[in-house]
Amino acid sequence: MKCHSICYAFYGCCHGQFSLFRHVAALAVPLLWFIGNPLIAQHNVSDLKKLSLEELMNVEVTLVSGRPKKLHETASAIQVIPNEFIRRSAAARLPEALRLAPNLQVAQSSSHGWAITARGFNGAPLSSNSMANKLLVMLDGRTIYTPLFAGVFWDIQNVVLEDVDKIEVISGPGGTLWGANAVNGVINIVRKSATDTQGFYVSGSAGTLLNHQIDVRYGGKLGEKMHYRVYGQRMDYNHTYNNDDEDATDSWRMNQAGFRVDYEPSAKNTVTLQGDFYKGSENGPDSSYLDGQNLMIDWKHTISERSDFDLQVYFDRTWRDQPLTTFNQQLTTYDIDFSHFFSFGDRHRIVWGVGYRHMRDRINNAAPLLEFDPADLNFSFFNVFARDEVGIIPNKVKLIFGAKLSDNYYSGLGFQPSGRISWMPDSDHTVWAAVSHALRSPGRFDADMVVPFDGKNNFDWEKVTAFEAGHRMLVSKHVNFSLAAFYNKYKDLRSIDLVNTTITIENNQKASSWGAELSFDSQISKWWRLRGGYTYLNISIDKTAPTVFDGSDTFESLDADHHFMIQSMMDLPANFFVDVVGRYTSELEASPSLATPEYFTIDARIAWKYQQLEFSVSGRNLLDQKLEEFGRSQIPRNIYGTVTWRM
């Protein structure tokens, strides 16, 4: 039995061929026309001026250091997607917004399924969801993670995009601060405070693939120190198509609601309480019924100008029922995290913290295709970390080093150290380099699955040692560039083995990867902004034992070598706005049943504002009637109209 035969039980085949260069003109011609149009060039619209390049470079990010830090000072390959960029795109859902980060690889695998990763290892699709397990994702600091396969179920990660303040994306290890599974990258979705979302917001969309979507939010205040918001959201999406151009029966619908309260009893204290509740269903060969709730409280306290702490506690419950396989899972998570920042002398900025997470996982083992032993499991994780930023030469050279010690139920203690150095020759340039060691913790799929695999084994941490270097530069007040190069060595990667006629999951693969990430942002004029990026990725996976199935590498990595994205945002006369995103992905090279052709396509949005109303028409995959990106489905062209009211 070959491994690709096993994989085929989980996902279908794709085929086709597209060329990048025959479509570039479709994007370039209208852009060049606008450059040469003097009427538009003289028009001064203030919308894009809300976030200049200098302001963007001074946006504070927290992913790199665990503390707010200006983007241009960060010693990491980080991209920031502010709300303005999301609003000025055709994105209707969170995964679509993540396409705007040029250092992420994002592909749609069904009407409700997505494959999202950084620097590769977008694993095989399972129930229309990629088994990518080397990317850590957080929503307002709450980890959205399932121990089932150590990844993310993207179908239940929904937000009102209007309320997203920014999305921070690190490509490269972040395990020193954020823990296991931050192997190839970290995403942090940050929603706006209740203070910044006062008043009414109503948005309704209807179209083809997006059947209809309604977002309603109201923000108010109780006294001068407490602000709140409540929201509701309804999403209904139509089906995609299989390779025979037949209905893939994967339509889905979701209802979600939530709230947030921000209370500032004093200048030194901020308390946030927020929660979300959702319920929905997904059609398909393995239909699903889903619901969940989460509740989080966060207390930030300023001790002095040189010291503060953050205490966060959250509860998260998810439930997923797939009747065809009689697979039923209920996961309950309790998490507490504490971090403390202080300055030591004039040169040291130290942050340290501890965290504890308890999970209760309940699985129905009546499924003929999936079975876990034990079916019910209670397990806990503990971690402690410390990080020191040392000013070697004040405002010029900094040395950053730290480590995290994590305890995992399956694999015991794991140590994740890192060291970074940054040099700022002037305020417009930051040069940095880093060496990191990160771990991917085992999931239940790796260690507890006994059907169809005999997963009862001592599955260990997956490990990577990563070498990175980069340069971030503000070329002028109108143009900035960022370049990062990396080389990663992986060992003890997951493998599918045949041992004494038994199929098992082991740690018998190793890999190396290297590549580069380039991004740019250009304020061409007061009315036109252009941004984007290109990523090259090369991955090589090898066996470390003769028992490994041929094709086991494909099960771990379905990754394209080339990714390119460009976003154009134009403010036109009479309150019209034209926004275009072009994106290219090269071929996914795999066995014939798994390969996906290269593609280049365009997403576009045309909007018109009248006082508090905005009318827009958006289109996704405009160059393709049906587009194969990842997995078993062909994604149809999606055209929809939206009416938005802000007050």
Summarize the structure.
It is built from nine helices and 37 strands.
What does it look like?
The structure is a single chain. The chain has 647 residues and is mainly β. 8% of the residues lie in helices and 57% in strands. It has 9 helices and 37 strands. It has a 22-stranded antiparallel beta barrel. It has a 5-stranded mixed β-sheet with strand order 3-10-11-8-9.
Topology:
Blueprint: H1 3-8, H2 21-35, H3 38-41, H4 53-57, E1 60-61, E2 69-70, E3 78-82, H5 83-87, H6 94-98, E4 105-108, E5 114-117, E6 125-126, E7 129-130, E8 135-139, E9 142-143, E10 164-171, H7 175-178, E11 185-191, E12 199-207, E13 210-222, E14 226-237, E15 252-266, E16 269-282, E17 288-304, E18 307-322, E19 327-344, E20 348-364, E21 371-372, E22 376-393, E23 397-408, E24 412-426, E25 429-440, H8 444-447, E26 449-451, E27 462-476, E28 479-499, E29 502-525, E30 528-543, H9 552-556, E31 562-572, E32 576-585, E33 599-610, E34 613-620, E35 626-628, E36 634-636, E37 638-646
